[in-house]
Amino acid sequence: MDEQLRVGLVGAGPWARRVHAPGIADHPGTRLAAVWARRRAAAEELAGGYGAQVCDDPAELLSTVDAVAFAVPPSVQAELALTAAQQGKHVILEKPVGSTVDSVGRLADAVADTGVASLVMLTRRFAPETQSWLAELGRVGGWVGGTARWLSGALLSETHATSEWRHAEGALADIGPHAIDLMDAALGEVTDVLAAHRSRGDLWQLMLGHDGGATSTLTMSLHLPVQPTIVDFSVYGDQGDRTLSGRSTPPQECYTNLLDDFVAMVHSGTAEHPCDVRRGLHLQRVLAAARRAAG
């Protein structure tokens, strides 16, 4: 790259330390320029390892960067990202993008108005095995249904012990966007939540209707002591079935792939991508419909 993007990081929690900061710092097209977090000590600890500036508030961070990556709770992200987009800053967003459809809609409108690049960190979509699986499904066609399981004890671990929004919103908000996104990409746009139920242990079960008539079922929990985590997606139809199992590509590599696309978007002036903020808005609408269906 002729010029590195100056990226500011909002948040200094485990995911920011593990994925965002090293990914941005190591990518040839980006530089970790600034960090802001609610706890200044956490921001200082993170920024110190990469020579990044520690900012006193989000406004200071926005004044020094070209783009912003977010690693904060959804309700915080939606409002801060709105300000960033309105100021012409490109944005890398975590999922879910916000806590309400309205807040994500306002952000999507701002991104469209300013023409900035936006990507949502739908981790598995940036994994080579997922891209190969989806490409094969597209070539073969004829799929009439699918099923997915994502069963984990992540919220029983110390890593997420202090993540208030994850404990409050549960599996639907945290891993739901990933699961819904993959089934949507595999079978066609989700048009209906046909049924939804949340049972003991934060076990979510959804039945989705897709454009074209396919249906799918999703089973998800982050409160089950399953070791190792079960993650599998399968579709079936006229040509048998095709299964995507596990998570063989680590999230750090997926994030690098996301940054490849993000940098290319910024330098080419492209604002559209299968995982841009419009995708986040679509997923937010499905999440809201699922909550309504579950009562």
Automatic annotation (TrEMBL):
<dbReference type="Pfam" id="PF01408">
    <property type="entry name" value="GFO_IDH_MocA"/>
</dbReference>
<protein>
    <submittedName>
        <fullName>Predicted dehydrogenase</fullName>
    </submittedName>
</protein>
<dbReference type="GO" id="GO:0000166">
    <property type="term" value="F:nucleotide binding"/>
</dbReference>
<dbReference type="InterPro" id="IPR055170">
    <property type="entry name" value="GFO_IDH_MocA-like_dom"/>
</dbReference>
<dbReference type="InterPro" id="IPR036291">
    <property type="entry name" value="NAD(P)-bd_dom_sf"/>
</dbReference>
<dbReference type="InterPro" id="IPR050463">
    <property type="entry name" value="Gfo/Idh/MocA_oxidrdct_glycsds"/>
</dbReference>
<feature type="domain" description="GFO/IDH/MocA-like oxidoreductase">
    <location>
        <begin position="146"/>
        <end position="240"/>
    </location>
</feature>
<keyword id="KW-0560">Oxidoreductase</keyword>
<dbReference type="Pfam" id="PF22725">
    <property type="entry name" value="GFO_IDH_MocA_C3"/>
</dbReference>
<feature type="domain" description="Gfo/Idh/MocA-like oxidoreductase N-terminal">
    <location>
        <begin position="5"/>
        <end position="117"/>
    </location>
</feature>
<dbReference type="GO" id="GO:0016491">
    <property type="term" value="F:oxidoreductase activity"/>
</dbReference>
<dbReference type="InterPro" id="IPR000683">
    <property type="entry name" value="Gfo/Idh/MocA-like_OxRdtase_N"/>
</dbReference>
